[in-house]
Amino acid sequence: MDVIDKLGRAEFVERFGRLFEHSPWVAEEAWADRPFGDADELFEAMRSALYRAPRERQLALIRAHPDLAGRAAIEGSLTDSSRREQASAGLDRLTPAEYEAFTRTNAAYRERFGFPFVVCVREHTKESILRVAAERLEHTHDEEVRVALEEIAKIARLRLGDVL
Predict the structure, then answer these.
(1) Is this prediction's pTM over 0.85?
(2) Containing structural domain, residue 72
């Protein structure tokens, strides 16, 4: 942790800014909480930055995530982390029927909540992702913002483990 604690703001953001999809501001905010005793404290600083952010900034973070098995995946414009994560759940190997199910689910979810369905895919299979999405479509908007932020924190925690 000494090496991490000694990083300047720019170097810290360069190293950890990608943990939160297209949202390096989370790492930038967490940098001020140094020194970190261990990886858990580092993660908690980032998680705290996420939760103390204004609601609009949180929503922008949720919206920065790609649809699962969506256009970005097909075009090849996913971040490296997202590409690996989606592949880990088999989302890069969908049958036409499965692709259609994801397309319908993504559209219904965006229509209902105004942001993409976010789930920590490393904890799921393609079947369980669709099941969880159907369950979450029953949430209120506020419930779903809370759950999406929790899922983003899980994703970031796993990504932090990859970086460290």
Answers:
(1) yes
(2) 65-140
